[in-house]
Amino acid sequence: MEKFGLSQPNRRTEDPRLLIGGGAYVDDLAPAGALHAYMLRSTVAHGEITELDVSEAEAMPGVKLVLTQDRLGELDATLGTTPAKNPSDGTRGATPERPILAKGRVRFVGEGIAMVVAETLAQARDAAEAIMVEIEELPVKMDVAPGGPAIFEEAPDNVAYVWKLGDEARVEAALASAAHRVTLEVEDNRVMVASLEPRGCFAEEMEGGRLHVCVNGQGVWGTKGDLARILKVDKALIRVTNPDVGGGFGMKAMAYPETFLVAHACRVLGQPVRWMGDRTESMLSDNAGRDLKQKAELGFDADMKLVAYRTTNLANMGAYNSGYAQNIQSELYSKVMMGVYDVQDACMTSTGIFTNTTQVDAYRGAGRPEAIFMLERAMDYAAKELGVDPFELRRKSFIPVEKFPYTTVSGETYDVGDFNRVLDRAVAEADVAGLDSRRADSASRGKLRGLGVCYYIESILGSPEESAEIEFGADGRVTLYVGTQSNGQGHDTVYKQFLATDLGVPVEMIDVVMGDSDRIATGGGTGGSRSVTTQGTANRATAEKVIEKLTPFVAETLDVDEVSFEEGQFRSPGSNVVMTVLEAAAAAREAGREDLLKTRETTTLPGRSYPNGCHLCEVEIDGETGNLEVVKYTVVDDFGNLMNPMLAEGQVHGGVVQGIGQAVSEHVVYDEDGQLLTASFMDYGMPRAMGLPMIAFYSEPVPSTANVLGMKGCGEAGTVGAMAAVANAALDALWPLGLRQVDMPFTPTRVWQMMQAAEAAIAAE
Question: Which of 102, 193, 314, 377 has its CA 20 to 30 A from that of 437?
């Protein structure tokens, strides 16, 4: 049991089950005989639907139902959104209607036009092909800038929102008076989430007229509320479950039409209905990530300290607002816009743009990677322009330890931090002193070597409130009910660690239940690196309450005056008699004390935690082909106290790889007509293990004061730091050629073209 305590690198308890095929994913659990649903999607990016005839499809073998927007009856057949609220004047972003199925007009390739429900998937596909659809094409809006062909009347110039923070006049004055001023523009390319398991769901009727909807999401309560609204039924009549989920990354946290259409079809037909997307369908319809153009202006004093900062971005919303999309590159971006630097003269403007593309929303990091990418790209660029060491330039502007807690210009209060200590460790572990030798070795092989640095900070997000319930069963097992949802991160393991540590219960006697709105009253789901911090705090509070409730009962049972709980056992001073928690629970059950067998607590964190750290990346670029390879990668993170170092390192590795993927190979491409050209893994460049180095991870903790565990969320940190580290390394490698503007992704063709342009510029001089 001690070996399975907190802060131990315990292996995941989930893995044996998953690795031998024991996973229970949504497509595994669909009821036998469930009808199959299939979506007919638009092949046109923008156009008026002039004809939609489903009569032939309805008459085809096996077809039970064909749904279109005008066949949804009295449903509230729209998806909701949270518009951005401009802090400068209180105005809200545009909220044009987003129908569940196309309503008279299609606005992106992949938008659902109709859903066919049939006995088999093949029958549903065949029937979908028989639907007569005529679309009169309209001009397409593809560029991420105001103006162009109108998509919505409610959004003049296709502007979804304008969001501003800070005193622009004051910042302009500070920039104007700065001894040095540097400007940089970058593109943050669109990426697909491409989770291992595509989206899917099924619906079935339950006793008492209730409806069970199983969906591979990131929490059940939002979906339950949306189902109640759209279907116009009481929440009590709906049960939502999340089973095993093969990756979410923010994309699966949002509402999608298929969930509600499947639920409606089940109610209409009185039979279970299932839907599972395939890979190309996912690429066409899943929310994408990033996709913005950014600009930063930095002002430095004569001593090279950063004194002023202004950032602007144009953010692609896609054709409709997704759930939280307007807030990603505005509010969430702003939380870390100033990073780890002691600067109060700063401002930002974010403008959302509607385009005829798939929606863009949260993707691992959600606004914080984009903000740090811009800031840290600009800091490395400034170091080169000003002839200053990039590490020293950062040190001059770090928030000093003595200033914590520190309130940023965006109103965030960083509780603790020691950025110099983390940076020192990173420089040492990455052997920066040996870089010149490695550069020379690369040059001898015809390659350019570059070093990139990124010092990031992240703000964990989501509700600060979470609940836990601990129940002792008649079989001697302990069940922990939690409000978060695993998407593969290892929650089962780390939550068992809490109980093994706090209650002394053997791990093999613990069951963790999550993702079931019938069995768990409330919860915040998973997102924003919140899970272990918020849920762990609730778990600990609930365990403490269990001990508090059992203590007087144990004293009475042992017939002693005083009982304490130490090292997993109740004991009385001066006595050798002990009792474990499981023994106490069994005695309570025998005594009829049911009130002692179930305990629930809800906690609210007093503040957010702010994970931070330094990423150092080295790349080699082939001088003849332009092929860029990440050859060395070092991360030093301050996650506060680690609950399970192995799981934390795994989260960092996964996040770093997603950042490297965006920087080197991933890129969503549409043509001028809005057709998706990267709709399969033959065309979309997912990162692969063979193209990655071993990622060195080190912990340099400064325990957080914002929670009793002293920990800081780690789920998104790898991605927040990786994008700028790789891009800065590419710039460092290409700088000697005269290149000053380098943008992701650094595919061989793009890098080769950059080098050719640099060579031509030199030849022209």
Answer: 377
